[in-house]
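Question: Hello, beginner here. Any chance you could explain the protein record under this note? Any guidance would be welcome.
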Amino acid sequence: MKVLIDTNIVLDLLLEREPFVEDAIALFDQVEAGQVRGYIAATTITNIFYIVRKAQGREAALQSVSRIAAGLEICAVDRPTIAQALASNLKDFEDGIQFACAVLNQLDAIAIRDTSDFTGVSLPVWSIAELQAQLSQQNAE
């Protein structure tokens, strides 16, 4: 399953943010095991660098970006992505970019902490628990 992983989930893992870190670890374990093919928007990389640098310093930010870039696919944010994001009518533009990345890269779903931000989109948007339930269901079939 190809899944776009929301920026906050990546940050939960890197910054070990409670109470979300355990779910993030479980998702990234599935990525490492090949059960999920993880994707992020290119803008997530710059957001990670900025936030981790403020919290832990430049070296930690560089290591975080390197770690994430090595383990996940990165979706381009280009003119078609921006046009799709604007057309999505999502309240948060960053969410629109992530949705557009998922659509344009023909991903199966988006994994996010707060699914209410993506109400009415044409793609499954799941919490990590919901994603894991979907994977379990697929494995049982």
Remarks:
- Strands lie at 2-5, 37-41, 73-75, 109-111, 125-126.
- The chain has seven helices and five strands.
- The mean pLDDT is 94.
